[in-house]
Here is the input.
Amino acid sequence: MNDVTGTRDYDWWLLAVMTMICAVGVLEIYSATHGSSLAGMHMKQVRWLAVGFVLMFALSRIDYHLILEQAPILYLVGIASLIAVLLTGHTRFGAKRWIPILGEFFQVSELVKLIIIVVLARFFAEVRSDELSLRDLIKAGLLVGLPLGLILKQPDLGTALVLVPMVVVGAFLAGLQWQHAAIFTLAGVLLIGSVFFPPVSRHILKPYQRERITSFLHPEEDAKGSGYQLLQSKIAVGSGGFWGKGFGNGSQNQLGYIPVRYSDFIMSAWAEEQGFKGVLLALGLYMALLLRLVQNAQRAKDRAGMFLVMGVAAALGFHVLVNVAMVIGAMPVTGIPLPLMSYGGSATLFVFMAIGLVMNVRLRRFVN
Amino acid sequence: MSYWFRNDNRLPQQRLAIASYVIVGMIGVLLVGFWKLQVIDSDKYLQWAERNKVRYLPVIAPRGRMLDRDGRVLVDNYPSFSVLLLRDDPVQVQKHLAAIAEGLNIPIADLKLQLQNSRNLNNFQPIVIKPEASKGDVAFIESHRTDIPLLEMLLVHRRRYLPGGFMAHASGYVGEVSEEQIEASDGRLRPGDFAGKSGLEHQYNDLLQGTDGMRRVIVNSVGKEVDRLPTQEAIPGKQIQLTIDYDLQQVAEQSLGPREGAVVALDPRNGEVLAMASHPAPDSNDFAVRIAAEEWKRLNDDPAKPLLNRAIQAQLAPGSVFKIIMATAMLEDKVPPESFTTYCPGYATFYKRQFKCWVYGKSSHGEVNLHKAIVQSCDVFFYNVGQRLGVDRISYYASHLGMGHRTGIDLPSEETGLVPSEEWVERVYHHKWYPGSTISLAIGQEALTATPVQLARVIGGIASGGVFKQPHLLKDAPDVAEERFPIREHTLQEVTDGMYGVVNEEHGTATAVKLPGIEFSGKSGTAQIINYDLRSRLGKTKQFKDNSWFVGYAPRRNPEIVVAVLVQFGGHGSEAAAPVVRDIMKAYYDKKAKKEGQITADNGNASKPAPPVAPAQPRRTPKAPATTAAVGEIPITDPHPQDPR
Here is the structure.
């Protein structure tokens, strides 16, 4: 399908916004680590970004219809690799999530997220009515349920949860009926409620997950655990004030009170040093990014493209929401990184590849 | 195109628009969250961030040293480490409490008690949980810096006293402050702080203590110090110079030996205490860290009462030493007239009761006049004097010559002694004064009691013509109080001649301690603990052996040194106590002669080496002028602040 005209049709605005977010991320990674044993981490991140850009452009060149075509195979590959990682994977930080490729450790679940976006786009694109039937809805649920269960088994609650908004947003756009929405919302509320209800949560959550829930509800009872992390993050954010303490001057950041300040809590470090004005910039960029994705979806050539783009938007939007809400202490610690800002290999590559899919759709919007 | 696409590719634009609103709403909500933290509650979090990173560590001010009159160090400090518990985060403290207790070998109950005691303090103030960290403790703290970031070591200055209880009662000791002291200190003292608990340490605590400083350091999340903020320096305590003469003190300690008793040596011209010993004595070093509960109990329960400073707290009958007061009273009141003589057959009968003289059964004094009565300590003579003077006059003179009230020495908890009177008996015992009591009172028995320091002051004052200086241990003390009770020259002559005779005349009670070339005078005293009759029935056991007194001075008029010695259960005054006085007297004159000899030798350009100034510990500053200045502002009044315990 040699329908792609040239570089002119890339979404340069989107690229610009992305690059700015990445720049903010690299700066803050530098600030958070330059005085510690992790010094030089920002350069590693730059390398990941470079690889990401390459992958993004590569992925944008292959017609997304071809990719969607391979959805069943991709799905099988995804499931297989999740099972493989459970059987042979590398355990780090108490969870089996990693497999070594080329000397680096990759999180299989990041790749699976990408595959599920593709699979769901394919699935919803095949729905032939304007209203989503309950039968299709359940099918979609099962399609996502299997990998979700496998990821939970690692255990990696954060990544597993990311699959939920993908299917929710997809179903919504595929014509989810209000009654179904109401039923599933109720079910969802019950599930979340039971997670916070100890007699039930004892059976469905891992001890560390229960601990996170507890420490979220009662941070003072667990001062050095995840409650402590949330508290320190809030202190960092709050003490930044409106103007911030200045680059490299955040005591919570520099003295290491913010947990994993270069990764999951990078927004906390940024908020401390740059203050509310910096937060305004960062969240503004994320809003621009997400709105730009929706715009690309609106202009997609077909429903399949739209679902693909919105799948990406759902995943990234959920990442931003959950991560930032955690940083301000409004959500428990889930271990979800902030897209493009947090340091990370697999997570960064996932975002770039996801945006690659978006570019892919955009490049083909005028072609019939 | 592929078969699986829907033919119609209408996009759900409406629902996509909703997605945009959701995104905007989501970002908006997050921004509101940030606004609340960063703008509304910013101050609170800024404070928390400060508290996170800044750790307050006390800098302990060293206590001032105590020097003797020649600048030799009597009480010094040595550096040591205490273990501090940082309590910024109570949850953390609770979490690690068991591990800390085990690692530092502290009973967990103790640790909890200490936390309980400091609950009123600010959380950012660390508390001392273990004074005197061992090597093992230091290793424990260092190796657990990361997982137990609550422990810190604090450099402190421990008190070092001369060993073996040397001068222990005068110097006193320091100990951890009590809750009452903390409350009374207006925040100056914290739990775990040390303050003077007794003796000079207590008396001059404000001078000696200094003011602790504060070190502020920036710590990272694992408790490692990464930077320092300006330190509030500690202001060291002032050094004080005492009137004590190390050489005389040493002689006093050695000469008194293991016997229960006390020594007080004064310069009656100015009230300076040259030596003060009380035995048995605790080792003050035992208190310098944290005294074990059993040791404290043992010291308190010991029947020999090692914590009692006998020099100022032993209230015992002065026995025949009181005859000097009687003689003074007789001569001043002329009752009976000076020419009064009596015959001593070894006893006398008053009010149908027989009163024995101390020579009863061995010999008799025969015809006795005042001089002979003093020299040979004839009881019968003074029985007669007492009967004629009456209890009122005896009380009057005893009180005005300095008995029955505190001398005002600059030590806490001085006792008053007691001068009985008719009024006193009626008030306390609700009966009339028995005339027979006057007879016993005349030889320093009955309810009459005195402390060693009182007797030194009284005898020294009488020999100085009725000028009584306030005894004190702080050198160059201003406002040394003085009481005057003018004595006629003739009285003075008679009394001092008598006391000279005690030591130097034939048949004097203390001729054995005569010192050639020195006008050593004095008066012995042998005070019954129970009366003669009862004792003869019980037999001579140590418990009922007499208390031995000797108060000596030199020269015979306007003395420059007076020494009062008490040896409890020592028997006759001239046997047990007098040799101690002699030893000190001799040491005093030997030293004086040596000094004068040196001056002569120096003038004569001799090659004698210069005398060593500070033998034990060299002085860091040769008599800091700041000390003297500050000392000058402290009047040595307030003789009895609260009980040191």
In short: Chain A touches chain B through 63 residues (CB under 8 Å). The mean pLDDT of chain A is 87.
